[in-house]
Amino acid sequence: MLGRRSPQRGLFEADTLYADFVGRESFYGWLASQRGELFPDVLFAALYKDGWGRPSVPPSLLATALVLQTYDGVSDEEATRRAAYDLQWKVALGVEVDARPFAKSTLQEFRAQLVVHEEQRKLFQASLTAAKRRGKLARHRKLKVALDTTPVLGRGAVKDTYTLLADGIVVLLRVLAAQAGVARGDRTAFSAWATQAGYGRYVGDVSLKGGAAIDWDDRAARERFLGEIVADADRLLEQARVRRGTLVAGSADDSALVEAAGLLSRVLCQDVERKETGPVIRAGTAPDRVVSVHDPQMRHGRKSAQKRFDGHKAAVAVDTDEQLITAVDVLAGNAPDDEDALALVEQTEQATGCAVAETDGDCAYGDGETRAAFAAAGRTLRAKVPTVRNGERFPKTAFTLDLAAGTCTCPGEQTTADLRPNGARRMFHFAPATCAACPLRAQCVAGAGGRTVTLHPQEALLQEARAFQASPAFAAVRRRRQTAEHRLARLVQLGIRQARYVGHPKTLFQLAMAAAVANLTLLAAADAAHAASAVALAVLGLLLLVLATLSAPLARMTRHWRRYAIDPVRASPYTPNMAGFRPDS
């Protein structure tokens, strides 16, 4: 049942007693001032059932604890300890000094409820609601947002093919053992069951490779060892198929078995090539390869040609005027940066209630397909067009393409209208005789024929983008786009570079919490600056009032001084008449 906090603040609560000591202008003091407004208990009513059980720990308190945990970058156990003994946390939570407000399991269960109900962005949305109350996201505003991504290193262990197959076998063994009546978590019983089934070397105290007495420099020995693992995997998958025949299709047991068997089958297909001489490790890397059995949603990713990582990508949209993060999402590690671009813009409009007038991105968002998607949605995208290269010869951009006239002019000022289809695209052709006589041929054509120039399906959009990119107005776009990079740097400070949890949903929760804290710290700093300005204005007003009060007597005194300073003889009514006095009389 939903527990609620009283709107009445107690005399013995930490924020009442020690807010000044901790600092009302600090983030902890600011959170204390937002009690009942930032995370009202009713915001989380859908996670609880009325009339069932005792009232819970108020979710407003647990939500604040999650914010503090992200802000300070601490574990669940440390968060529980700080809530019990740290004065800053007690002020922010608004609890009594001697209170222990929640147990570690209570905090974990609240987080799990948010993830299970797909409410990972709920606290992030609350930060945007707070920004709306301060007028930073007024409905009449037309937003300009910047998009960007950054790698998130996955939590699952990345292992070689031998160990990856062994882990997949163990995952399927655990499901079969549980359905055979082996208690979950009973390691001794599970090991005995697996050993009896003929899979003892996968569940022993020594790792599979550590217990293999082979010469790892001997290729034939390695392949024999791999063949034994593949044979065990095939035999176990056959047992899983037989077991499925006894289950109700679509039941919980059937779904668990399908998931575990599917994971093992995928690892086999992606990493092992079956030849007549036996299975061997597949050369190269399979597309969309699963890199960890413990986190199957991790992928091999590249931020650049040299920078490789294993995990996910955090994607954000940022309001370039207020620097507020307006949308977040987690992409697969091998996904292109622009995969979720349009969805982030739509998420921004839904979360803020403001229309997005312009979207800025780097060259990862500048391809023709992304521009076409934005154009079809009636949206403006500003992003650098990826550079076109052609080795040491003239690139395509050195040619003038007139799409309306259907002509192409080369750097040698030769024009062709010979436009032919080339699969899904079209291609301009220059006559071989024209290119043979051109003095620039060595810089343009490699073969014996004439030069060809291929048109992109979105060539018109790319031409328009290149023209804007060459204009002075593009400098403002480049400056605005840096806002997203700055906000990503703040998120990295808050710990998103390394995933704390396994799986996409929990990684999304981590990203959304970091974005919420990034927004809240901005709002806290703005409130502190506003309060300081208000104090300064109040002091100035008081000084003006004092001056106005003293101005009348000061004016009278000034007039009186001026009167007798001009006529010193009249400085006193008792001054004697000296008109008839002579010194020699």
Provide an overview of this structure.
It contains 17 helices and 14 strands. With 585 residues, the protein is α+β, with helices and mostly antiparallel strands. Among the domains are: 1-119, no CATH class; 161-281, no CATH class; 396-463, no CATH class; 525-565. Strands 1, 4, 5, 6, 7 and 8 form a six-stranded mixed β-sheet that branches. It has a three-stranded antiparallel β-sheet with strand order 9-10-11, with no helix packed on it. It has a three-stranded antiparallel β-sheet with strand order 12-13-14, with no helix packed on it. The chain is flat, with a radius of gyration of 36 Å.
Give me the Rg, rounded: 36 Å
Task: Give the helix level as a range of percent.
Answer: 40-55%
Give the termini separation.
114 Å
Mean pLDDT: 89
By secondary-structure content and strand pairing, the structural class works out as alpha+beta
Which range does the strand content fall in?
5-15%
Coarse shape? flat
Largest sheet features: 6 strands, mixed
Q: Helix segment count?
A: 17
Question: How many β-strand runs?
Answer: 14
Q: pLDDT below 50 for ≥5 consecutive residues: which ranges?
A: 568-575, 578-583
What is the structure about, briefly put?
The protein has 585 residues and is α+β, with helices and mostly antiparallel strands. Helix content is 46%, strand content 13%. Among the domains are: 1-119, no CATH class; 161-281, no CATH class; 396-463, no CATH class; 525-565.
List keywords for this structure.
585 residues; alpha+beta; six-stranded mixed sheet; three-stranded antiparallel sheet; 17 helices; disordered C terminus
